[in-house]
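Lecture 7, part B: from sequences to assemblies.

Below are the input chains for today's worked example.
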Amino acid sequence: MGMAAAECQFHVLAVDDSLVDRKLIERLLQKSSCQVTTVDSGYKALEFLGLRQGTESNDPTALSPSPQVRKMNLIITDYCMPGMTGYDLLKKLKESPAFKNIPVVIMSSENVPARISRCLEEGAEEFFLKPVRLADLNKLKPHMMKTKLKNQKLEEIITPSNDENGTVAAVEPEIKDSVEMEIIKMLPIQSETEPKRVLLQVVQQEEQMLSNNKRKSMEEGLSTDRPRPRLEGIATAV
Amino acid sequence: MDAHVAQLQMQYRNYILSLYQQGFLDDQFTELKSLQDDGSPDFVAEVLSLFFDDCVKLVGNMARALDQTGTVDFSQVGANVHQLKGSSSSVGAKRVKGLCINFKELCEAKNYEGCVRCLQQVDIEYKTLKAKLQDMFNLEKQIVQAGGIVPQVDIN
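Predicted structure of the full complex, as structure tokens:
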């Protein structure tokens, strides 16, 4: 895909049947330093993610489908679309073991409280009213970073074992909490600078140091036998 | 500074301000402008072009839906209005969006006469906006050709 490997690049899939809105969301996401893929329907979204080709199975390797999927940090979709609505798409994603952990954001031009709560209950991270603004997208960085870190930590856990999806899923909450706790511990130290930007720097460094046999060593130019660093270790280097 | 450039810039500023004051544009248009940069220097023009293409298509659909001898499918008309309302909202086309809100209600009320009248208004309105924005882009071109920079207009 030609991505600059060491940069903190988020890949977002944007789904909207309106060409005008696709153009807009694409620009907004690019402006937020994200790599964007746009599609015009829920069906195309599932196709892009590889869901419709029946790549799903209970095989542990299902957690590592095509390379494109691994890099998806967020899916942002319009609610009102012909055929498959954004809500339908959300449901399908949350029902899928491979994709349920990718954060999903719903956009809508209509402010219908029942609709909003239904989407959030189904697992959407955020619900944005259109027209979406740059300020709205800034709220998404934490969600995307969480997934990126989680994916990398999951890789390391899966590598030694041949456990079923269920076992891995049980481990998930533990990782999530410890990562979040460590990140929260970080913030007070860096209070004179803008917290979000610092968080991003910390995550970037953490990502650069996390590596395993699955990641191409060329991508990072780092040795793969470096031990997993502790966040406190990074703090002093910042 | 070149007096000609300064004059063009003032003309441009006043023109933009008038578009906002007369309700043609709202702050979403301001947002669009803020998304344009050296990396995407034609973003606003590109989005607007897509919007006006949308207008042609949707107005055409609605005209056909309303032209049925026999029962008119108001939900079909309404679906097109919904789309037009969405894209006009996304580009800051305030008057077009306002008309769409009325239009939606007329569809729900299955008010045939009202719908036909509203569609005519929508048609006039988007074409008027298109002409106004074309004038705006022409002014921008003139400023650049005269060696100046297109000013950022603060509408507050």
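Note for the exam: The interface with chain A takes residues 28, 31-32, 34-35, 37, 39-40, 43, 46-47, 50-51, 53-54, 82-83, 85-87, 89-91 of chain B (CB under 8 Å). Keep this in mind when comparing with the next example.
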